Amino acid sequence: MLRSLGQRPVTGSDEDPRVAELRTAVSRLRRELATHPAEFPDRGIAEDELAALAAMVAGGVPETPRLRRSLLRIAGSIGSVSALATRLADVRNAVDLFGEPPSENRR
What we know:
Blueprint: H1 2-5, H2 17-35, H3 43-58, H4 64-78, H5 85-96
Helix pairs in contact: 2-3, 2-5, 3-4, 4-5
């Protein structure tokens, strides 16, 4: 959202807008997951990875490869729960703001 609107950090704040967007997306998905009535086998994995993402963004700009691993674990654990699809897509879009991880094959 911030990137698409061309927004910059608020004056007096040096927070990276990508971090703010990821924090918001993670928070929203965590809330929706917490209130989702159905239990599913990998719910704990999703909750743990979302907590890890929240901790990463609290520390500043996180490492892109770690973000992508967490995203894959979250998607794998809640991907079949259609009620969470929109918020999961928001997290994916926020992770994408950090760009592609460096490829080991590129030189």
